[in-house]
Design goal:
Layout (H helix, E strand, L loop, with lengths): L2 H40 L2 H34 L2 H35 L6 H30 L4 E4 L2 E4 L2 H5 L2 H35 L4 E2 L5 E2 L12 H39 L1 H7 L9 E7 L12 E7 L2 H7 L9 H12 L23 H28 L9 H9 L2 H16 L4 E3 L13 E2 L10 H32 L1 H4 L1 H10 L9 H9 L1
Antiparallel strand pairs: 1-2, 3-4, 5-6, 7-8
Helix pairs in contact: 1-2, 1-4, 1-6, 1-13, 1-14, 2-3, 2-7, 2-14, 3-4, 4-6, 6-7, 6-11, 6-12, 6-13, 7-8, 7-11, 8-11, 11-13
Length: 532
């Protein structure tokens, strides 16, 4: 067993799991703030119901994201102490600002929003959710500044073997961060849009299946009500789901356009800053201009795929050059050209230093796992494209006011929620694993071999054993698995319960008006029901 490999698996599993919550939190936060703004401006009840329903799901996801994110901080010190020692002077600044500024604002104003219903003036209460949602975006920026520095170190110099910040402005305005930030935020809105679309489709389908909503001879919706279910199946309930669906689909399509445009700019930077990552992502073994639509490796080959067993099945000439330089003729360096260049710049072998452990003196493999980079890049694009396509189809299908009475379409809509999550996850896996064998990738613009970079092999804690890492890997994975079940159960329960699950006062009002048991008179009960 190799402590380094186990540590990488542990950080990868916990980070990808945590990142499932992050984009939904970012996207839903601003969505809920917008919905509440519409209620504040119009006074229409369906905007209030939308705010509380989607706000309830936002809270569940936010709390789970906080619980799983805390583990990341501990891993830096426990499993990656050498890395923390090397980058601490730089990395600590954006992380501290994220925790002390962004997260503090985020959590404080979110608490005021949760418990401020009917307590705070409406405008003040609306301001709290805007402050909380904007703070989530600010929090994302600080995290991306830290990560972007790992991808493209700037504003630093080496002092006694450690990276020391010399220019804070350069670190916080790193061009990699400025491109990665909008790409990540648009990806978060794609997740939120798909989330709204799938859940709203499910509820509109239930209304059709139960015979509440019908269609006329021209296919237009005839909105009905179910007196037995009161406000949970009235005409306002219909407005909640049709508006949520169309808002979600619109957001998803705009988000995909933003992801595509920002992703193109990000790819151009990667070709410049990490050419090996992009060469591996395209299985570009040789110099050229062609974009690989499909390349295959030899499945009988021993070990990871390399350029000795990659066969290009179908390429489109000129597209790779366009992605990198904006033209169709400039040849892009392939893996076989880049490997000697990397070896000349950074060395062919790891230093014979005890900090490298069993890797000391071994030959460095500068080619990242090609299967991961190649297929991760394509899965990211494919899943994102499918999400946008589904959103466009949903807008067309629901143009007459409802969804078809089709069980299979309803299931596809619900399953489609997973597509933008998958696009975000595969995108991050590609970004992080494509940086190997570096935890801090070298900045090619700095020149020379004395620039700031760090090998992954030298980043792991020297005193941590493989057995200890394996124990923590199994433990954390098991705990995260339980938390995943808890979140899915909670989300499913509140989603199936509809608006009344987030607004029990609706059911209380129905009982009261029908002569049944009267609901609670204390407004505090409504607030606590929403919070807990």
């Amino acid at each position: 067993m190799d402590a380094l490999e186990i540590a990488r698996w542990q950080f990868g599993i916990t980070t990808v799991y945590h990142f499932l919550m992050v984009p939904l939190t970012i996207g839903l936060g601003l969505t809920v703030a917008t919905l509440q703004t519409m209620w504040h401006r119009t006074g229409n009840e369906h905007w209030l119901r939308m705010t509380k329903f989607w706000g309830k799901l936002f809270l569940i996801n936010f709390i789970m994201g906080v619980a799983t994110g805390i583990v990341q901080e501990f891993q830096f010190g426990m499993a990656w102490s050498e890395y923390s020692r090397y980058v601490g002077d730089v990395f600590g600044a954006p992380l501290a600002m994220e925790a002390l500024l962004a997260f503090f604002v985020e959590s404080t104003f979110l608490g005021l929003w949760i418990f401020g219903w009917k307590k705070l003036p409406k405008r003040v209460h609306l301001a709290t959710i805007w402050c909380a949602s904007l703070a989530t975006i600010l929090s994302a920026y600080f995290i991306l500044v830290a990560n972007s520095w790992m991808q493209h170190p700037v504003g630093t110099k080496l002092v006694d073997g450690r990276a020391v910040m010399t220019d804070a402005w350069a670190v916080f305005t790193n061009n990699t961060a400025l491109v990665t930030f909008p790409h990540t935020i648009f990806g978060a809105f794609a997740v939120a849009g798909g989330f709204l679309l799938g859940i709203s489709w499910f509820h509109l389908y239930r209304r059709r299946k139960e015979g509440i909503d019908t269609v006329d001879a021209n296919g237009y919706v005839v909105v009905g009500e179910d007196p037995n279910r009161g406000k949970n199946r009235d005409k306002t309930d219909y407005q909640v789901w049709i508006k949520s669906l169309r808002i979600g689909a619109s957001v998803a399509m705009v988000a995909f356009l933003g992801v595509a445009l920002s992703g193109h700019e990000q790819a151009k930077l990667m070709f410049e800053q990490q050419p090996m990552k992009m060469a591996a992502a395209e299985a570009a073994c040789h110099d050229g201009t062609g974009f690989s639509v499909l390349s295959l490796g030899d499945i009988t080959a021993q070990g990871a795929t390399n350029c000795d067993n990659v066969v290009a099945v179908f390429e489109i000439p000129g597209i790779l050059s366009y992605l990198a330089n904006g033209d169709f003729t400039t040849e892009i360096k392939g893996v076989n050209t880049l490997i000697p260049e990397y070896q000349e710049k950074y060395g062919k072998y790891y230093p014979s230093d005890e900090s490298f452990g069993q890797y000391a003196g071994q030959e460095i493999n500068y080619l990242p796992v090609m299967e991961v980079t190649y297929w991760g890049f394509r899965l990211m694009i494919t899943l994102g494209g499918l999400s946008a396509l589904a959103a466009g189809v949903a807008l067309w299908i629901t143009r007459k006011g409802t969804v078809p009475e089709s069980k299979w379409l309803s299931r596809l809509a619900v399953l489609g929620i997973a597509a933008p999550f998958g696009a975000n996850a595969t995108g991050w896996i590609f970004t992080e694993m494509g940086r190997q064998p570096f935890t801090v990738a070298p900045n090619p613009q700095m020149g020379g071999v004395d620039q700031v970079f760090m090998y992954t092999a030298a980043s792991v804690s020297p005193t941590v054993t493989a057995g200890e890492m394996l124990f923590s890997l199994i433990s954390l994975t098991a705990i995260y698995g339980v938390l995943l079940v808890v979140e899915l159960v909670l989300l499913t329960r509140y989603i199936r319960g509809g608006v009344a699950s987030a607004m029990p006062e609706l059911e209380a009002a129905d009982h009261s008006s029908s002569g049944g048991p009267k609901g609670p008179d204390n407004d505090d009960d409504d607030v606590l029901a929403f919070a807990y």
